[in-house]
Design a protein that fits this description.
single chain; alpha+beta; Glycosyltransferase
Length: about 375
């Protein structure tokens, strides 16, 4: 049901077209009124006739935790959409509602140590991605998410809901190497396992094809299904780093997730409403080479890992002297290069923090790590 809020917001973010928001605004408000009326103390604790984290391999994930998390996120998105169409009173109301649901979520489902009810990969990915935790709890929750990935044998246990969020949650929490390890896995369950077993499209279920057992339920399984393919969002927005800084990509953020090990080349093209955006990076030894293409009538902020701003070089020009190029230094280890439309190429020397990070090897078996049994065994 939350798609009635989420999809219009995504379309607005990608195209900056407010007509869709205005056309469906009344129905979206009715849905928010329904959620608020159904809630008790801003929690959706009633009977949940829902699929939950459908086709997740850890089936303990609480439906009420999922429902309340989405209630909060819906309110946050509604506030942004209301402001976009000039409904300022509603924007303030929904921002306040988000805070109320967020506080209720934390008080009801999160321990002082950052443990979330159900204690599954999905609940931590949702809470981190939807901004439901304060800074201290978010740090503890991120650590717990990393622990679960390890104790689950370096395997995803997420289903349709959790899979969309987990790689970006790990990346934003400073653990991108864990996200890359999950992406590159080839054992069961993983995208690589699907490919190695003949998939040309993504399956509905991780276990649509069981190791050594064929297809356990072929009549009730789709072999051309989107949901687990939501990893594509991370490939573009996380790995290549292409994101709208303003709705409709009038301003663009390119913040790639760069690795010195495990993967040395990435190139992505996104056909935005304003034209093709290109982000590509290559690592050779300790040097990062970044190529970007920014469409006409737009601008971009390129975030590069670098220990010193002087170490950023526009190939053939020199970043400080490049026409329309400006450098800022927001924090140690990162430089932001601001550019207008056009094609650019930069080089940097990678900071030690990235050079030190290695990608954990995939386990030799499908078993779990210490302390927890793998839920698919």
């Amino acid at each position: 049901m939350d798609a009635g809020i989420i999809v219009p917001h995504i379309i607005y973010t990608m195209y900056a077209d407010v007509r869709l928001l205005r056309r469906h605004y009344i129905s979206m408000k009715k849905y928010m009124t329904y959620l608020e009326g159904r809630s008790e103390g801003f929690l959706l604790e009633g009977p949940m006739e829902a699929y939950g984290d459908w086709n997740g391999l850890d089936r303990r994930t609480s439906k009420v935790v999922i429902a309340t998390a989405f209630f909060a996120w819906d309110a946050r998105l509604m506030s942004e959409m209301a402001r976009a169409i000039g409904e300022e009173d509603d924007a303030v109301y929904y921002a306040s509602l988000f805070e109320k649901v967020r506080r209720a979520f934390t008080e009801a489902y999160v321990s002082p140590q950052g443990r979330i009810r159900s204690d599954t990969q999905t609940v931590y990915a949702l809470a981190l991605s939807m901004g439901l935790l304060d800074e201290a709890l978010a740090a503890a929750a991120a650590s717990r998410l990393a622990e679960l990935v390890v104790s689950d044998g370096w395997r995803l246990t997420t289903g349709y809901i959790g899979t969309r969020f987990i790689l970006q949650a790990l990346t934003d929490s400073g653990k991108p190497e864990m996200a890359l390890r999950l992406l590159l896995n080839r054992g069961f369950p993983s995208w690589g396992f699907m490919l190695d077993n003949g998939a040309t499209t993504l399956w509905e279920k991780w276990d649509a094809y069981a190791p050594g057992g064929g297809m356990p339920d072929p009549r009730n399984t789709s072999f051309n299904h989107y949901a687990l393919g939501s990893v594509g969002d991370w490939l573009y927005a996380g790995l290549a780093g292409i994101q709208p800084a303003e709705p409709g990509f009038r301003a663009i953020t390119i913040r790639p997730t760069v690795f010195a090990h495990g993967i040395q080349h990435v190139r992505a093209e996104y056909l935005s409403v304003r034209g093709v955006i290109v982000s590509g990076w290559t690592v050779a030894e300790q040097t990062l080479r970044m190529k970007i293409s920014i469409p006409p009538n737009t601008s971009a902020s390129l975030h590069l890992p670098a220990d010193k701003a002087a170490g950023v070089r526009e190939v053939g020009v020199g970043a400080q002297d490049g026409k329309g190029v400006a450098l800022t230094w927001p924090e140690p280890g990162r430089v932001v290069v601001k550019v207008g439309s056009g094609d650019y190429e930069f080089e940097t020397t990678l900071p030690e923090e990235i050079l030190r990070k290695t990608i954990p090897r995939e386990p030799d078996t499908n078993g779990a790590g210490k302390g927890r049994e793998a839920p698919w065994l």
